[in-house]
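dude i think i finally got it to work??
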Amino acid sequence: MKLEKRSVFGWPASGAGSASPRNGIAVHYDGSNQGLAKKSHAACREYWARTRKFHMGPSRGWADVGYSWAVCCHGIVLEGRGLNKVQAAQPGGNATWYSVTFMSGPSESPTAAQINAFRELRAWLRGKGVKAAIRPHSAFISTSCCGNILRKLISNGTLAAAPPKPTEELDMTPEQVFNAVWNRDAVPAPPGGPSGPNWKGASFLTNTYRDMAKASEVKALRTEVAGLKSELAEIKALLSAALPPKE
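look at this
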């Protein structure tokens, strides 16, 4: 799961009250189309910051952005109130249900990456004891939220499907990979192959350099032998010319 925590936005810990939402996830959307799928992820961050500012402003006066998390069209989960906080999103379920908003509007279908981000978030929450249920905002109060498109994805089980198994991917920078793999093996281990008890990553480089050196030596020897053969051929020709012909 690709998660951007509150610290990415410079936000302190949420000022919302503590709770233990375990009943499931309430799904939300924005009341107007956002067009974020055609923009960079920076636009999603700006949208999330504006949403929090609006929720904490005079028209709402909430302690924080109303939702636990948001999922953007680029497949990234953005932290709102986060874990173990009272929501301000679905009256009647604010203390018992987590809330997740899709950064989309009434006529916008979520992207495949967005749906997968929701599934990954849900799987993560299930691992923390949250129940499997998924409900639209309209299940708690009379509202058009979360729209017909998302309601259909809830009812037909699309959002409840398991996320695909993650591919083998290192969540590390090139520098971290270098330090973890090569700097750790700063002293080359004795040769002996990967099955040897002292084999390390650096052994691969040691043996590779050794084999390259051997190959270079063999090439030089072959060149030298070829030269000697040529000289011997010349000597043989000279001797043949100097000797009298056989009678």
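Strands lie at 3-4, 25-28, 69-71, 77-79, 98-102, 134-136.
im so relieved honestly
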